[in-house]
Amino acid sequence: MKIVFLGGGNMAAALIGGMLERGFDAHELSVVELAPERREWLVGQFGVGVTGVADDVVREADAVVLAVKPQQMREAVEPLAGRLERALVVSVAAGLRIGDLSRWLDGFDRIVRAMPNTPALVGAGVSGLCAGPGVDGEDRELAGRMLASVGSVVWVEDEARMDAVTAVSGSGPAYVFHFIEALEAAAVARGFDADTARRLAIDTVLGAAKLAAESDDGPDVLRQKVTSRGGTTAAALAVFEQGGFMGLVDRAVAAAEARGRALGEELGRG
Ligand SMILES: NC(=O)C1=CN([C@@H]2O[C@H](COP(=O)(O)OP(=O)(O)OC[C@H]3O[C@@H](n4cnc5c(N)ncnc54)[C@H](OP(=O)(O)O)[C@@H]3O)[C@@H](O)[C@H]2O)C=CC1
Ligand SMILES: O=C(O)[C@@H]1CCC=N1
User: Fold this and answer.
1) Could you tell me the distance, in angstroms and rounded to a whole number, from the CA of residue 113 to the centre of ligand 1?
2) Is the whole model's pTM more than 0.95, yes or no?
3) Is the CB of 171 inside a 6 Å radius of any atom of ligand 2?
4) Could you give the ipTM of this predicted complex?
């Protein structure tokens, strides 16, 4: 198996790190990355092959993972048109639509649009996947296997919903990290040293997510089980409610979704 990453930034590193821990060998993975210092880092960190030019490495690939920023994509992929002899293309870019990628690749249509997230690095990612018109059963199997090696996988039939996947789970880890930052800051404000504050905040989120994942109860029931009548949690949740927490999260997800759609429209016009 030869899997080539085009772009070796944050998301590529999360996928590569996770895939190496779970069933792929370093000699199966390589990265086309423009920045020499980033190439050096990727070799040191993962022992994968690196190059600054896509040419031959792409011709021999079974899969090419497009992992540059959406704004860099057209320039990065147009030189690949006509060179993808046997590769499946998996794009992880936010917003960019399969039809536009296909046009930039001169009609090549074995394209899976995927939206992973950075917890892939620790095997705890979740990815939404959507297959383009030229994708067959074997291609689906390969894309599914790559992303299932770093977490769970959800296939989405209607591509228009990929912007919602991006807004919920692609960007979602950042929302959770922001919540951890807020909980940690609240602990520091109450006199805990930085390490203790971080431990309290991270282990709370980790434990709650693990319980939610493993319990037969939904998160609503688990919340109620923490919330004693007239107790401390009820006092805190009332403040969340006064602040419009549920609506705030929905508006944040809507903003991310709209940004994904706008990126697809803006960049796809070119
Ligand atoms: N970060 C995340 O959590 C997630 C990101 N994504 C998607 O993943 C993609 C990458 O995001 P992210 O990793 O955060 O971005 P990064 O900017 O960290 O990574 C992109 C890398 O590609 C390099 N690059 C740019 N042009 C080329 C080229 N023509 N050939 C080879 N390498 C090139 C960039 O170099 P330079 O910096 O010098 O331009 C950079 O190192 C995006 O499309 C994003 O939407 C999807 C899910 C989650
Ligand atoms: O912020 C972004 O645009 C990318 C896509 C999802 C997560 N990071």
Assistant:
1) 15
2) yes
3) yes
4) 0.98
